[in-house]
Write a structure and sequence with these properties.
mainly beta; two-stranded antiparallel ribbon
Length: 56
């Protein structure tokens, strides 16, 4: 997820870049149901636009 969000924003987490397209705005919790049980995933939020992981 970090690589996908870095590509969407134009910079990695904590990285300064004048060409940055969006900033991160914390995380939202999402429960992911698996056969082994429930996994809590922190999904990064963006100030502009949106991000949703491709594997969901």
């Amino acid at each position: 997820m970090e690589l996908e969000v870095g590509a969407a924003t134009g910079a990695g987490h904590g990285e300064k870049n004048p060409l940055r397209m969006a900033q991160r705005n914390g995380y939202r919790e999402r429960d992911w149901e698996t056969r082994a049980g429930t996994v809590e995933l922190p999904i990064p939020k963006l100030r502009k636009g949106s991000y949703f992981p491709g594997f969901f």
